[in-house]
């Protein structure tokens, strides 16, 4: 005999399999009932699919099934034609990810140079950033933020999973100029 909890887990599983995009708990409830304990069903499904070829993942508060990362290579028939993101694009994406919501002027102030509109367009076409509203200041500049697609592409559950400065230093990803600047700032603080 199927218990109500098992029946709900099956319903949530079916909804997620049929969905064409990741779904929030509220989205799932629209299909299975507003009183349903969807969180418990998701936990149960996560346990069932742990270590399987398909796994249940949550990215930015939205749930979906995906191929296990260690098996993704089996599904690639053709090599994707990937475009390399320019240094300006990488810097702009990093600024948006770490400082969102952020306006074009704020991005330019942090980078120290102007950015072309094309840079933001490329990031929006990739589905990694989106307009996030307008600042309540004169001129009402548009602000930008990252998307759930950004989290999914980079394998992050939330923006809190972005590496910190210590992580970047340990990975050897900081530019020697950045390290020298950071040391100079630390020395000036110590001297003060």
UniProtKB/TrEMBL annotation:
<keyword id="KW-0132">Cell division</keyword>
<dbReference type="InterPro" id="IPR036390">
    <property type="entry name" value="WH_DNA-bd_sf"/>
</dbReference>
<keyword id="KW-0963">Cytoplasm</keyword>
<keyword id="KW-0131">Cell cycle</keyword>
<dbReference type="InterPro" id="IPR005234">
    <property type="entry name" value="ScpB_csome_segregation"/>
</dbReference>
<dbReference type="InterPro" id="IPR036388">
    <property type="entry name" value="WH-like_DNA-bd_sf"/>
</dbReference>
<keyword id="KW-0159">Chromosome partition</keyword>
<dbReference type="Pfam" id="PF04079">
    <property type="entry name" value="SMC_ScpB"/>
</dbReference>
<protein>
    <submittedName>
        <fullName>SMC-Scp complex subunit ScpB</fullName>
    </submittedName>
</protein>
């Amino acid at each position: 005999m199927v218990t109500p909890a098992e029946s709900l887990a099956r319903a949530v599983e079916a909804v997620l399999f049929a969905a064409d995009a990741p779904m929030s708990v509220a989205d799932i409830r629209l299909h299975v009932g507003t009183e349903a304990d969807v969180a418990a069903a998701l936990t149960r499904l996560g346990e069932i699919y742990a270590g399987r070829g398909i796994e249940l993942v949550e990215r930015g508060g939205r749930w979906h099934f995906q191929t296990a990362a260690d098996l993704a290579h089996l599904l690639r028939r053709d090599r994707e034609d990937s475009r390399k993101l320019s240094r300006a694009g990488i810097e702009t994406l990093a600024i948006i990810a770490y400082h969102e919501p952020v306006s074009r002027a704020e991005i330019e102030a942090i980078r120290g140079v102007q950015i072309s509109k094309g840079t933001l367009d490329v990031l929006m076409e990739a589905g990694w950033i989106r307009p996030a509203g307008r600042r309540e200041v004169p001129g009402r500049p548009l602000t930008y933020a990252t998307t759930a697609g950004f989290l999914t592409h980079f394998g992050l559950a939330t923006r809190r999973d972005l590496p910190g400065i210590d992580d970047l230093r340990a990975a050897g990803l900081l530019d020697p100029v950045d390290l020298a600047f950071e040391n100079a700032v630390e020395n000036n603080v110590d001297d003060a």
